[in-house]
Amino acid sequence: MELNLNDILELKKDHPCGSKHWEVLRVGMDIKMRCLGCGHEVMAPRRKAEKMIKRIVPKEEQA
Fold it and tell me: What is the dihedral of CA 3, 36, 47, 53, to 10 degrees?
């Protein structure tokens, strides 16, 4: 999966704050993401993070 910095991701499950959208902060062997609902940051191994991602939100849909 091709992930870039500042991509907005929609995950399969809701975060406890109610948001499904996360911003990519770091890409490498680990993926660092920030919840756009509450600002919580998570770093997960790439393999695990890719399983959680439903889709990359296109720039046109971001508001």
Answer: -80
Q: Which residues make Cβ contacts (< 8 Å) with residue 33, sequence separation at least 6?
A: 9, 22, 23, 24, 25, 41, 42, 43, 44, 49
CA distance 57 to 8: 5
Helix (H) and strand (E) counts for the chain?
Answer: 1, 5
Q: What is the pLDDT of residues 5-34, one digit of tens each?
A: 999 999 999 999 999 999 999 999 999 999
**β-bridge mates for residue 45, sequence order:** 30
